[in-house]
Design a protein that fits this description.
heterodimer; A: alpha+beta; 4 domains; eleven-stranded mixed beta sheet; four-stranded antiparallel beta sheet; 15 helices; 15 strands; elongated; B: mainly alpha; Arc Repressor Mutant, subunit A; two-stranded antiparallel ribbon; 7 helices; 10% strand; globular; disordered C terminus
């Protein structure tokens, strides 16, 4: 009588085969099932005969059935004519280039779809007027701290300045922005960062304002409010006729004067709207940020994008200040990318060999045309990889529009560095694993020799070009006589190197043939 | 470059096993020690490249022995030529799996 466990195992094994058969193309499935189920019967007879409950035997049968999945995948890949063509294409240089080109297209498309990245690309910080500096107290190292008192700002404006011809001031508070027409019982809205800024801040920075309404067209008694793109979309549903609408910010009323393009603000503070006020409104209160435009004399004083300023304060106090160029405060994504890529290329030799490993065992050398082909392929790979890294780093850094501009900068720097570093490492390692003749990836790694015999004989890995051009020998442990990988070109002279059996060759010493 | 098709080690050993009389999947597994996930896909590729050909055993024979019929594999002329080339490249091939002729000596 058959023990119940045998039935369970048999059903389990048949279930595995049936599951694998679903992966096989439909037209080959019946034949495949017939062969595997017949083989299973024989495997069961050999490993777990009826009436003998053996866990070891059942494990062997299970291992046999699991192999059916690999066979099914193989048939799926190679079953169709197109599949065969694809298999031949896989691993080729064209396959690699097309894959990278597709990745570049995808990353570029994603960068242009993400609003934050699009804003960063279409309206970068370069649009800010040149020769602007952000002034801060020289004693503060944190550039995102508000350090300038309104009284200081007024004192500078009132004095004649040889180095500056324009000043603006702003400080950020958190307030909700509610349309005046909204009912009083409206639930509490999100509190946004509102920059209480000098009326000339946009003119000084040279930033555009979209949907702008002329000052005469709105209530002249109310302060003007410029919305950020995020607030305009979230709070006002991207209403194109928003300009001129009166809003409430706590107890204060303001009229919307326009919308600032997304990503245009590259200065400290996460700002959702700018309330443009007369300078008299900043007579006292919390410190903020000051921006100034340099004269020609002021530009001459700049050194390394910074200028030291000694200014007289409101009570004839001497303030030690630092002016930092806005270009320096908000470097463009391209500048960050170039810097990160430069650092990564400097670090590259620390993690991989920069050699292409084109050493040959025999005297045969690749022709100049093949070398040119190989170098062209490497150049194409790098030329495709670098823009991929640029766009992916933009996606990572600026994909979230709510993140601070400073955090985006650091995310881009770090992600660029690691992507370029490991991407270039991959490009070089991939190149070293490609047949110098056809640039296909070599396959079927076979372990040759024994590590314990390193000092007596060669040991390492042997890989073969599936087009039959070359064999690649990679030493397991680099030695003085075999320190780097070497190529064996499989031409007629190669056949001459191998002698027939029984000619005195030590088993397994050269052919790399290992049954296990 | 040599004109013969060049085989991986695994494919060469399977071809040698088929030539040596191990003509169905499980027997090749037993002989070579290779797992089923290696042997069967390799045989698919060999058959696709026209180096081996498969044929189902007659139902009457299987019925007589009260077992399911088996799918047998044999070398094609192209497979035989490729095996010869592989033996020159891998001299240990015949030592590991002696062919029928060698075994009978």
């Amino acid at each position: 009588m058959t023990p119940p466990s045998e039935w369970v195992h048999h059903v389990w094994h048949l279930g595995l085969l049936r599951g694998a058969s679903l992966l096989v193309p439909a037209r080959q499935r019946a034949e495949w099932w017939r062969e595997w189920s017949a083989e299973l019967w024989h495997v069961r007879q050999a490993c777990a005969p009826a009436g003998t409950a053996s866990w070891a035997g059942e494990r062997e049968v299970t291992a046999f059935c699991l192999g059916a999945f690999q066979d099914a995948f193989c048939l799926r890949r190679h079953g169709f004519r197109a599949g065969i063509a694809f298999a031949a294409w896989q691993g080729s240089a064209a396959h690699c280039v097309v894959f990278l080109a597709a990745a570049l297209t995808a990353s570029c498309a994603l960068a242009h779809l993400l609003p934050g990245v699009r804003a960063e690309l279409t309206l970068p910080h370069q649009s800010i007027r040149r020769d602007l500096v952000a002034i801060q107290n020289a004693d503060f190292f944190d550039r995102s701290s508000a350090t300038i008192l309104p009284a200081q700002y007024h004192a500078w404006k009132e004095q004649e300045q040889p180095y500056f011809d324009g000043f603006a001031f702003y400080r950020v508070t958190r307030e909700s922005i509610v349309p005046e027409s909204a009912p009083a019982a409206t639930p509490v809205r999100t509190a946004w960062g509102v920059a209480h800024a000098s009326a000339n801040v946009f003119a000084l920075l040279g930033l555009p304002v979209l949907l702008a309404v002329a000052p005469g067209d709105s209530d002249g008694n109310l302060p003007r409010l410029v919305l950020s793109d995020v607030v305009w979309k979230r709070e006002f549903g991207a209403d194109p006729h928003i300009a001129g609408t009166v809003v409430r910010m706590g107890e204060r009323r303001a009229v919307i004067a326009g919308v600032a393009p997304d990503g245009s603000w590259g200065l400290p503070g996460q700002v959702g709207a700018w309330l443009l006020q007369p300078d008299a409104d900043f007579a006292s209160g919390e410190p903020g940020f000051a921006i100034a435009h340099l004269t020609a004399a002021g530009k001459a004083e700049m050194w390394a994008q910074c200028v030291r300023i000694t200014a007289y304060g409101p009570h004839q106090s001497v303030d030690d200040l630092l002016g930092v160029a806005l270009e320096e405060r908000a470097p463009s994504p391209w500048t960050i990318y170039l810097f990160a890529a430069f650092l990564a290329l400097l670090a590259l030799p620390a993690i991989t060999s920069v050699s292409l490993g084109e050493y040959s065992i025999s005297e045969q050398r690749t022709t100049w045309s093949r070398k040119l082909y190989s170098w062209s392929f490497l150049s194409a790979k790098i030329a495709l990889l670098l823009p991929i890294f640029y766009f992916v780093s933009l996606d990572l850094a600026y994909g979230r529009t709510t993140s601070e501009p400073e955090s985006g900068l650091y995310i881009q720097l770090v992600s660029c560095f690691f992507m370029v570093l490991f991407g270039m490492r991959w490009a070089l390692r991939d190149q070293r694993q490609r047949c110098p003749v056809c640039l296909r990836c070599v396959e079927h790694p076979a372990q040759v020799g024994q590590a314990s015999r390193t000092f007596l004989a060669w040991n390492g890995t042997e890989l073969m070009c599936m087009d039959g051009h070359t064999l690649l020998h990679v030493p397991g442990i680099p030695t003085s006589w075999f320190s780097t990988q070497r190529w064996l070109y499989l031409d007629t002279s190669w056949e001459f190197l191998f002698v027939g059996p029984g000619a005195g060759m030590e088993p397994g010493t050269f052919t790399g043939f290992s049954p296990h | 470059m040599a004109t013969e098709a060049k085989l991986s080690h695994t494919a060469a050993i399977i071809l040698q096993a088929v030539d040596a009389g191990f003509v169905y999947g499980f027997s090749i597994m037993e002989m070579t020690g290779l797992p089923s996930g290696t042997v069967y896909p390799a045989m698919r590729r060999l058959e696709r490249d026209d180096l081996i050909r498969s044929q189902w055993e007659r139902q009457s024979i299987a019925d007589a022995e009260q077992r399911p019929p088996r799918k047998y594999y044999r070398l094609t002329p192209a497979g035989r030529m490729t095996l010869q080339a592989s033996r020159r490249r891998y001299p240990l091939l015949e030592r590991l799996i002696p062919s029928e002729e060698v075994k009978s000596v």
